[in-house]
Amino acid sequence: MSAAHQSNPDRPHPDKWIKVLPEGLYVEPGGFYIDPVRPVERAVVTHGHSDHARPGNRHVLATPGTLAIMRQRMGEGVGGSLQALEYDESLRIGDVAVRLVPAGHVLGSAQVVMEHAGSRVVVSGDYKRRLDRTCAPFEPVPCDVFVTEATFGLPVFRHPPDLGEVQKLLHSMALFPERSHVVGVYALGKCQRLITLLRAAGYDRPIWLHGALEPLCRLYGSLGVELGELRPATVAAKEDLKGALVLAPPAAVADRWARRLADPVVAMASGWMRVRQRARQRGVELPLVISDHADWDELCQTLEDVGAPEVWVTHGREEALVHYATSRGIRARALALIGFEDEDSEGVTGGAAGGEAS
Q: Signal peptide span per the entry (predicted)?
C-alpha cells in the first residue's frame, strides 16, 4: 500500500481527509468522529471508558460489547440510535469503508480500520498486547497510517509479567492471613481482568466487591466472562472480611469506606505503580504493576507489526515514540487531541466510581 501511495501523487494523503477538530478526530468523507469529546451527529466509539465513550451523540457505531457497556453506564443518555458492528464486518459510511478489529484493551474494545481513496488508516484506540481472558486479543492490521495511543510511551515503562504481580498479592495474603487485602481497580476492565488472573493462578475463594464494581461484573458474566464467586463487600460484617480479598475503586481505597476492613493491606493495580513515588503518595503498601495499556516495548513492537510508513501518536507520551519511529525510518508526528485522560486519572485517582482504566 505504501509503495502505491508514493507512486500516485493524485491520491489524497490521509491528513487531507482526517482532521483534528475541537470535537475530536473527524473523518471528513464519512462525516463521523472517532471517540468525540463532545456530542456530535455521528460517532464511532472504540471502547466503553468514559474518556472515549461519552453520552449524547445522535448516532453511535461500536461493537456489541461496547454498546452493552455504554448502556449499562449511561442509561437513557447513551445516545440516539445505536448500531452494532461485529469484529471484521465491513460497513460503508459515506465514502469510507469502516471495519472494527480487536484492540485487546477491555471487553468490546476495537481499532477502527478505514479505507478511502486507496489508503488504509487504522486508529488504535487504547490497546494492549498481553493475554486477557476478558476480551479478544489485539490484531495488527497492515496500513498506510497508524494512529496509536502512547499512554506508556517512555522506555522506563516496561510492565513485568502479570502472573508475577498476582503472585505478589497471593504471597502477601499468605503472609498476613488475618488482614484484609484491598486492591484499587477501575470498574471497567481492570476489575474483571484481575479476577481472571487470580482465578488462573488458582485462587478459588470468594472475591469481595465494592458496590460500584458489581454492575459491570454482572454484565461481563452475562456476556460469557466467567469470574467465579463474587460477594458484596458493602454489606459484609468486618469479621467476614478478615483474610479476605476485596476489590474497590481507587478512590474508595483511601476513603472512609475502607475502615470496615480488618487492618487492610492496601494494594493498587495500575501501570503507574511502576512509579514508586505515586504508590507512596497514595498510601499503597503493595503496588501491582498490571496495566490495560501497551508498555514501551509493546508500543514499539506494534509499530513493527503493522508496518505503517507513517504513524500519528496521541494521548500519552508522544515525543519519545515519535522519536523512536523516526529513528526506524517511519514518518511520525504527534496529534494534538484533547479530552483524553492519562492513566493517572484513569486508574489511580478519579471519583467515587474510580476514574478510568490503567
A: none
Pair 189, 347: CB distance under 8 Å: no
State how far the Cα of 170 lies from the Cα of 347, in Å rounded to an integer.
21
Joined grid coordinates for residue 307: 508496518
- Whether 106 and 292 have beta carbons less than 8 Å apart is answered as yes
Burial of 82 from C-beta contacts in 10 A (0-12 / 13-18 / 19+): middle
Distances 177 to 169, 209, 286 between C-alpha atoms, Å: 12, 19, 15
Task: Yes or no: say if 60 and 81 are a contact pair by the CB < 8 Å rule.
Answer: yes
Burial (CB < 10 A; 0-12, 13-18, 19+), residue 242, is middle
* pTM of the predicted model over 0.85: yes
Contact (CB, 8 A) for 44 and 122: no
Measured between its terminal Cα atoms, the distance across the chain in Å is 34
Can you say how many angstroms the Cα of residue 59 is from the centroid of all Cα atoms in its chain? Answer: 22
The whole-angstrom separation of Cα 165 and Cα 174 is 15
Q: What is the pLDDT along the chain (358 residues), one digit of tens a residue?
A: 443 344 456 789 999 999 999 999 999 999 999 999 999 999 999 999 999 999 999 999 999 999 999 999 999 888 889 999 999 999 999 999 999 999 999 999 999 999 999 999 999 999 999 999 999 999 999 999 999 999 999 999 999 999 999 999 999 999 999 999 999 999 999 999 999 999 999 999 999 999 999 999 999 999 999 999 999 998 888 888 999 999 999 999 877 788 788 789 999 999 999 988 788 878 899 999 999 999 999 999 999 999 999 999 997 779 999 999 999 999 999 997 655 554 444 444 333 333 455 6
Q: Which CATH number fits domain 162-288: 3.40.50.720, 3.40.50.12650, 3.90.1700.10, 3.40.50.300?
A: 3.40.50.12650
Q: Residue type for 249, please? A: P
